[in-house]
Amino acid sequence: MVRDLEVQQRESGCLILRVPRFQPKISCGSVYGGYRRADNLPVAIKHIPKGNVVWTDTDENGQRLTIEVAAMLKLQTESADSVGKSAPISLLDWYDFNQEQILVLERPVPAVDLSQFVKNNKEPLQENQAKTIIKQLVDAVKHLEDTNIFHRDIKPQNILDMNIKIGDFGLATQLKLPNEKHFTMCGTPNYISPEVATRSAHGLESDVWSLGCMFYAFLMGRPPFDTDTVKHTLSKVVLGDYEMPCHVSLEAQDLIHHPMWEKVSRCSTAPQLHPKIYSSAATRTFQVHDSFTPSIVNSIKH
To answer: Which residues form the Protein kinase domain (predicted)?
Structure first.
């Protein structure tokens, strides 16, 4: 049953209808698919309990901002030339209540997160498909790095739409300097770097490590360090213990090795990896097959 979302109308006119979709109750909040009443624009509505909200900044009016909101606003401010290119999911509005914060986000239609896309494909992607997706991902991560945004949870589930959109900035942080380092262990075990896993100094390069893990997963159908337990997975991450697929080309192997082979402190940043991707990946935008079922908001939940 469609229910009105009871929020105060702001200047954006963003009164929302919401429809529960895709695990409306999750550990860190809830996500709904809906439509903006003013113009029927498809939106995703993310509910975050106040206990999971981290405050970091204030806007020009003195209003407190969460890490997620501040990061997305900064990206949007500096993304005027990114229309039609790889870009972050847009934040349309947000609301603060006593018990929760609500984010109203862009919802591309049709859309599919990369995890579901690979699963629906029922077999590893062809190299040309994987390279095209990775090219767009490098574009997107390069944009984050250029804006000093450290995402910290790059993984297939957080990549929405085949014209790549990065979602879920709940773990992101704004860096004061490009070489700023952090020591917090956060993210998804299959895609974090050794430095993150050991709580050692790490920065923007860790997002690039995640790209190498994703490229491997596209070609093999599973992440490189995947095991039955988090402890064993983290052990393999720290040791760099993964098998290079022998059926892929040397060029594809290099694109896996390049961000992952060295310690992250010596690993490429996205701008350094960027020319290599452009020299090897096709320039066309990858199209989703009509038979695939769209996943609307799965990639923008905690």
So the answer is: 17-277
DSSP assignment string, 51-115? GG--EEEE-TTS-EEEHHHHHHHHHHHT-TT-TTSSEEPPEEEEEE-SSEEEEEEE--SS--BHH
Compare 259 and 17 and report the one with higher pLDDT.
259
Burial status of residue 289 (CB atoms within 10 A of its CB: 0-12, 13-18, 19 or more): exposed
Q: Are 70 and 63 in contact (CB under 8 A)?
A: no
Catalytic residue ranges: 153
Structural domains of the chain sorted by starting position, each given as residue range(s) with its CATH number in brackets: 7-106 (3.30.200.20), 114-295 (1.10.510.10)
CA 212 to chain centre: 14
Kindly report the length of the chain: 302
What CA–CA distance (Å, rounded) separates 297 from 202?
29
CA angle 176, 178, 183 (to 5 degrees): 80
Nearest to 225 by CA among 217, 235, 233: 233
Closest C-alpha among 217, 238, 236, 216 to residue 227: 236
pTM exceeds 0.90: no
- Burial string for 75-103 (b: 16+ CB within 10 Å, else e) reads bbeebeeeeeebbbbbbbbbbeeeebbbb
Q: How many CB atoms lie within 10 A of CB 265?
A: 15
Q: Nearest 10 degrees: CA dihedral of 214, 68, 148, 138?
A: 20
**pLDDT confidence of residue 232:** 95
Please say whether the beta carbons of 154 and 166 come within 8 A.
yes
Whether the pLDDT of residue 254 is over 70: the answer is: yes
